[in-house]
Amino acid sequence: MAQTPPISPRGRDRALGMLRHLTVGAGAAAALATAGLGVLAAATHPGTTATASASSSKSSTPTTSGTSSGAVQASPQAPSSASSGSGQATSGGS
What we know:
Structural class: mainly alpha
Order of helices and strands: HEE
Mean pLDDT: 78
Largest sheet: 2 strands, antiparallel
Distance between the termini: 50 Å
Radius of gyration: 32 Å
Number of strands: 2
Strand order of the largest sheet: 1-2
Low-confidence stretches: none
Number of helices: 1
């Protein structure tokens, strides 16, 4: 089996420079591709603007009760029954 001759310092520096240029080029290409895909996604699926107004006949101000130390604490309040959306959440894969 033939052995390869050792690389000269100048050849090593040239190889490292080429590798540096390839790395910078790959990073720039990845950044441009990410930006391009973002623009493409925004152009093809712009989304919608909607305002949600949840109105409730109950007051949203919590009631308070005094304690023996004089501190005021908010009483627990049930969550509002007004909601929007499907009420379904999916997490995880497969």
